[in-house]
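Exercise 3.2. Students should predict the tertiary structure of the chain below and write it as structure tokens, then compare their answer with the key that follows.

Predict this chain's 3D structure.
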Amino acid sequence: MGAGVAPGPGGSAMRFGVRARRVAQVAGVAGVLFAGAAAALAAPWHVVFEATSPYHHIRVIDEDGMRVLSFDGSTETQMSLSDPLRGHFEYTEYFHLVWLWQSRLSNVLMIGLGGASVQRAYAHYYPEVTVETVELDPTVVQVARDYFHFKEGPKQKVRVEDGRVFVRRTTRAYDAIVIDAYTAGRYGSFIPYHLATREFFELARRRLGTNGVVAYNVIGSLRGYQADILGAVYRTLNAVFPRVYLFPARESDNVVLVATCASQPVTLRQLQRRADAIVRGRRVSLPGFRTRVAAFRSLPPSNAHRSPVLTDDYAPVDGLLSGRTLRALEAAPAAPASPRPRK
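Answer key:
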């Protein structure tokens, strides 16, 4: 679902990815007024669908040959009207990198549907892979069917349910779990708290098969914009999975984290060799697959060591988005060392 953008249809704000939303927030009221005036003068746009569900104010907007899905003023999905496999946000292509750890990928669980960018791509490039999607909002499912070429079938299934509830109840084992679920709040698009805690990731790990992986989209950056939430999600994943790697997008403030059940570390060169073999074997035909591998980062974010592990009892996502939580942790006195237990 993922990448938020500046509110409002029209103009370049719909096309500049997450950075545009940050600029609009800094600009304040004057920026909003200017954006409204600019939208009126911009190239023609058309709202083809609008509704308010129990979870979102949803709009589907056509502009300049692109179709955009908006939740509460943030852009969640974009798609080319002439070719539904083009025009998507670049970061969604990093969800294909689960193949590097699962070269015989057969089934994937996806939490979050949005405009079905990843589901469409998987259906086209990997028709033999079963994709099961869990989406909380039934209106979003209908919009994906009606406006974004999402087609259900034996290999593409969707369930209207809370993602965590589904993961807790299912008995299936998956090769990969892809998580791209966001909602709107006072700081823009943010991760639902209950899908970012250690307890949730423990549930997810129990649903993975041997060498299973989790791919998780975080709106943020390695330094600066929303780096605090990225550090916290990284550290929380790493409390459950032995290895966590980073794939920062080039065109937006998104970082896809890949957490692996395999404890053996990998290098960029190893992944490049794996990618070469997978492409030669025609298991992956996504254009630019090898290019995406080059974004690989094995080192943790620089702030991970001071970031909190998020739990069901302590998940200050709002504070991390605003920068308050890490400032409070840095200001707090160090806790006294626990006495060593007597034998």
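Discussion points: The chain has a mean pLDDT of 84. The CA atoms of residues 316 and 325 lie 7 Å apart.
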